[in-house]
Design goal:
This protein is an alpha/beta fold. A six-stranded parallel β-sheet has the order 2-1-3-4-5-6, sandwiched between helices. The protein has a five-stranded parallel β-sheet with strand order 9-8-7-10-11, with helices on both faces. It has two domains: 184 residues, Rossmann fold (3-Layer(aba) Sandwich); 155 residues, Glycogen Phosphorylase B (Rossmann fold, 3-Layer(aba) Sandwich). Helix 2 packs parallel to helix 3 and helix 10 packs across helix 11. 43% of the residues lie in helices and 13% in strands.
Length: 358
């Protein structure tokens, strides 16, 4: 089974770590897990973050050149299907549908979203391209119920929609956390939603006596100065670890007492899965996307604000045994739903619907 793989938002070989890159790599490994030979067909990034018509036009021209090249490559290589990851209005798949048509092979998508409101305005051209790509898919694997709602609403006749749970790129659990370390925050420092989560964290910590907690922040980015300013009132209670590689990040999880991340507009958040896999309980808000990866528990709604998050933090700080039990429930949840083997089987089933896999 020879598959072409493409991620228009960020190729899995990109230098900058992110959840999107990690998920792309995990998908390739899951496809290989079921015996597929996977070719990264293109590294063209189609993202337009500002709604610039000129940028969109230039990317569409580059995509046209890629299509010609890839049809020839796919014919020579004997690709059986094309799989694209993360098609949406700011980074549409401008390549996969045309190549799949040219080769007469199935076209599948993983994590796509529809945004009718973007069909007018500065992203209109790209939004229409993303809709066309979604319409062309024989199978769409959706990761969240939030995406599934619009996918079901607008699905063309005959399209198959399959729930693929977000998953870690491993088939076993890491060592269990000692739960003896500080509270952990693990997130990049970017403007917008990430900074909004950091703001909520600062508001929450201000409601808790400083002698009851310590907190480490793993992450870096363009907004580091702003994050440091938010955390300055807490002095030495907070330690900035900077960006960590995979091994160092795993070490941080294996000593953390809690993971604290509100999750403003997170698609789902692999960090939650990584923490829970190590048996670290999570304090987060009950948000769409985030709830897709959290073990059943008590997560306050966003409108409850910082006081509700502070109450949850103190509940764990004051009751170590409950913290340990919550961590074990989280670990069991990841083992049951969010590891490589389960994801690989779901992908196999979807490919089998197109006649590619058995």
């Amino acid at each position: 089974m020879r598959l072409a793989f493409y991620a228009p938002l960020k190729p899995p070989v990109h230098d900058t770590p992110s959840g999107d890159r990690a998920m792309g790599r995990a998908l390739i490994h899951a496809l290989e897990h079921i015996g597929a030979e996977v070719t990264l067909a293109s590294t063209l990034r189609t993202r337009d973050g500002t709604g610039d018509a000129q940028v969109q036009h230039g990317l569409m021209q580059k995509a046209s050149l890629e299509i010609t090249r890839l049809i020839a490559q796919g014919r020579a290589a004997g690709w059986h299907a094309w799989v694209s990851y993360h098609n949406y209005y700011k980074a549409p798949d401008l390549i996969g549908p045309a190549v799949a048509r040219g080769l007469n092979i199935p076209y599948l998508q993983v994590e796509t979203s529809r945004a009718r409101k973007r069909l007018q305005g500065p992203w209109a051209t790209f939004a229409k391209a993303a809709e066309a790509a979604a319409n062309a898919a024989d199978v769409i694997f959706y990761l969240t119920e939030r995406d599934a709602e619009t996918l079901r609403r607008d699905a063309p006749e005959g399209q198959r929609l399959i729930h693929l749970h977000p998953f870690l790129d491993r088939d076993d659990l890491p060592p269990r956390s000692t739960l003896q370390g500080p509270i952990l925050v693990a997130a990049m420092m970017r403007p917008g939603d990430k900074l909004a989560s950091y703001q909520i964290i600062a508001e929450t910590l201000a409601l808790i006596p400083k002698d009851r907690w310590r907190l480490q922040i793993a992450g870096d980015g363009a907004m580091r100065a702003q994050v440091e300013a938010l955390m300055a009132p807490f002095g030495q209670a907070i330690t900035f670890l900077g960006a960590l590689d995979a091994d160092a990040m795993q070490h941080a999880f294996q000593s953390a007492s809690l993971l604290f991340w509100p999750g403003v507009n997170e698609a789902f958040g692999l960090t939650y899965l990584e923490a829970q896999a190590a048996g670290v309980p999570v304090v987060a808000q009950d948000r769409p996307g985030v709830r897709e990866v959290l073990a059943p528990g008590d997560y306050p709604p966003p409108d409850a604000g910082a006081p509700a998050l502070a109450k949850r933090l103190m509940a764990f700080i004051d009751a170590p045994e409950e913290s340990k039990a919550a961590g074990q429930r989280a670990r069991n949840h990841v083992a049951a739903h969010h590891l490589l083997n389960a994801a690989a089987e779901t992908l196999r089933q979807g490919l089998a619907l197109t006649g590619v896999a058995r």
